[in-house]
Design a protein that fits this description.
Layout (H helix, E strand, L loop, with lengths): L4 H10 L4 E11 L5 E6 L5 E2 L1 E3 L7 H13 L1 E13 L4 E2 L5 E16 L8 E7 L9 H11 L13
Parallel strand pairs: 1-7
Antiparallel strand pairs: 1-4, 2-3, 2-8, 5-7, 6-7
Length: about 160
């Protein structure tokens, strides 16, 4: 995953210590009900498309931008399906530690052709929901929530 310049600036001061960062996931469906996935260059695993917002960037714009940058597919964000804090720390090979606060959007493809469009993906493709590649629980849960017409999912507060 390409590290945004503003994160590099923070890392220059903060070193490898744990950072809580915003994240956006895009669950993109085409007119045939297939979901767009990318096989990540950093892990080799298939997942949903996502990234980090630039300072001042609206989360829905981040979703649309990341989908186009990574896959060449144009889409529109239709609704928020999930807001969730990451429960585990991600440690990158260089020692940087992060946890992400993720906002997931259901998106609809409106154009473009699915292809590897940057260096963040090894492969990109459309998958029928009954023929998904091996995915993490993170990706599977987001796809499930994007299929639902229910309210935005979040972890309810237990009170103080």
């Amino acid at each position: 995953m390409a590290t945004p310049d503003f994160i590099r600036d923070i890392r220059a001061v903060a070193g490898h210590q744990l950072l809580l960062l915003p994240g956006v996931s895009a669950i993109v469906f085409d007119d045939d009900g297939r979901v767009l996935l990318g096989r990540r260059a950093d892990t080799g695993q298939w997942s949903t498309i996502g990234g980090i917002p630039e300072p001042g960037e609206e989360p829905a714009h981040t979703a649309v931008r990341e989908v186009y940058e990574e896959t060449g597919v144009r889409c529109v964000a239709e609704r928020v399906v999930l807001v969730e804090a990451g429960h585990s720390t991600v440690t990158y090979p260089n020692g940087d530690q992060c946890q992400f606060m993720d906002i997931a959007f259901r998106c609809r493809a409106i154009g473009g052709e699915a292809r590897v469009n940057d260096d963040e993906s090894l492969e990109v493709g459309w998958f029928a929901l009954d023929a998904l590649p091996q995915l993490s629980e993170f990706a599977l849960f987001r796809i499930k929530q994007a299929q639902s017409e229910g309210p935005t999912w979040f972890q309810p507060s237990t009170g103080l």
